[in-house]
Amino acid sequence: MKNFKNLVKIVFLLCLITNCSNENHLGDESQNINEILDDFFMELLKVSPESMTYLGIKDRYGEWDDISDDAKDRELEILRSQLKKALKIDLRTASDSEKLSVKMFIDQLERRIEADKWRYHNYPVNQMRGKHSQIPSFLINQHSIDNESDARAYIDRVKAVPVVIDELINQLEIRAKKEIIIPNFVFPLVIESIDNILSGYPFSEGENSPLYADFSKKISQINLPVNVNDELLNENRKALKDNFEPSYKKLKNYLTELKNHADDHDGVWKLPEGESFYNFLLKGTTTTNLDSNQIHQIGLDEVARIQREMGSIMTQVKFDGTLQEFFSYLQNDESFYYDNTEAGKKAYIKKATEYIDHMGENLDKLFYVAPKAKMIVKAVEPFREASAGQAFYQRPAPDGSRPGVYFANLYNMKNMSKFNMQALAYHEGIPGHHMQISIAQELQNIPKFRLYGGFTVFNEGWALYSEAIPAELGFYTDPFSNFGRLAGELYRACRLVVDTGIHVKKWSREKAIDYMNANVPHSKNYNVRQIERYIVMPSQATAYKIGMIKIQELRELAESRLDDKFDIRAFHDVVLKHGSVTMPILEENVKKWITNQ
After folding, report:
1. Which strand ranges, in their side-by-side order, compose the sheet holding 404-408?
2. pLDDT tens for residues 375-421?
3. pTM of the predicted model, to two decimals?
4. How far apart are CA 348 and CA 322, in angstroms?
5. What's the burial of 536, exposed, middle or buried (CB within 10 Å: 0-12/13-18/19+)?
6. Which residue, among 357, 369, 355, 375, has the nearest Cα to 572 in the 3D structure?
7. Residue 362 is inside which H or E element, if any?
8. Residue 395 and residue 437 in contact, taking contact as beta carbons nearer than 8 Å
9. Is it true that the peptide bond before 136 is cis, omega within 30 degrees of 0?
10. 72-106 pLDDT per residue, tens
């Protein structure tokens, strides 16, 4: 689920229209608490053009977010001011829902303020979510063009890229002086992605570059006069050539030099106060008090359990051999993979869509509420497929102008097996991310920070849980697909082991890769890319299994307490109807529901 920047900044469009002010409403008895919280977030939304674009709001449409330290300082002051005001909100007549919202809002403000201590403990250029790849991805996937003004805003953003890249280089330099530099292996991946971005016309001969092709396609669909269309194409070409290209070459040159100062230490233990930083991340990622040693052990225990379940499927398909031999069989038998051709990739997209559509037709067996937003399945764009993750989800626009998207990375079809694709489709689509995120966006009478923000442990925990529940409907008719489901869960269990291993126990990249190769049925190349992801995104990978375990524990509690009164549809609705919440709040919500039954 992975691909949104600072979603907690996103707020309700009505506040933009009315230009509300939180100063006035704090003393207004007619102003309800939800509106006060929405006003707080309006304050942040106004300084984030990119967040507004994510929401489909075309204000400051030709601008980028300011990533400078001055901007961070201004944001920190806003957060501190909002916290001071939020603590004064009168809760004497507030509903339980409003009290929960205020508590969540204050908790998030406090954590964001605390996080400023670790302002530089990140890698703003990396192979997963680097700013260099976010810029073209944002223009292609987020900046819609419905008229000439939108097109000119697109060109303005292209022209403004040098300002963003210059500040990005400045931020990298600040971190380098603090000895916070991405590991050696990241540099060639990032430089390759820059070369891919600058490939094609107008940067070089050949087919149109991804950005020029995107702009050309978008303006061709709005029926502008021929002379205006040609003028815009020329201006965009000139901006790409005169502004965009030089800035990206400057970044490439800087990274080439910075590589000389990098090392092969992969965990954040190498950073200043690295272990404390990782513990801070774990608490935010899991929303629990589990420490790295506990999470590491949970991972080891889950790996052993899941591998025992895999053994029963091996017996079912009459495979005579060890688990590792079965893994090798799955990795090397071509029948488990689509061809690495355009036809093979189209077949994958078609089949994944079929799985999601079939699940959608049967949602009433598991849920009372279904999302209104549509979703589609797309391949990751060529310019970023070499370094992007296996799959990820992009939320729909709240106004319905843009569907939810499950992006499947088809760069190497050996990384996208047929036996795993069914579970992956459920995870990213329905009943996983699309179900959870769309329902959250469509909730009524709760503040927008709860609709559009969220917690990785809830979002990814639900998505991993969603891989398992279709099995209860008998949807995994092929034992190999059921094995693929277990393989997906096994992978998430291994993540607990390797993430803590890398960042606290000082495992090398190679040791973590070897652990994966020995324990999961994925290709070696895939394992390499996944380990490299965990290195630059510390703790994020621990959220999936910890969240799934908590949801399963709460379901088991509800089933045991309610017995024949237990309704799986009602349970799922109570999990989703409050939006994305922390694990302690989820537990509280479910226990209240059990009592009310």
Report:
1. 375-379, 404-408, 391-394
2. 999 999 887 787 677 899 988 887 778 899 999 999 999 889 999 99
3. 0.85
4. 29
5. buried
6. 369
7. none
8. yes
9. no
10. 999 999 999 999 999 999 999 998 889 999 999 99
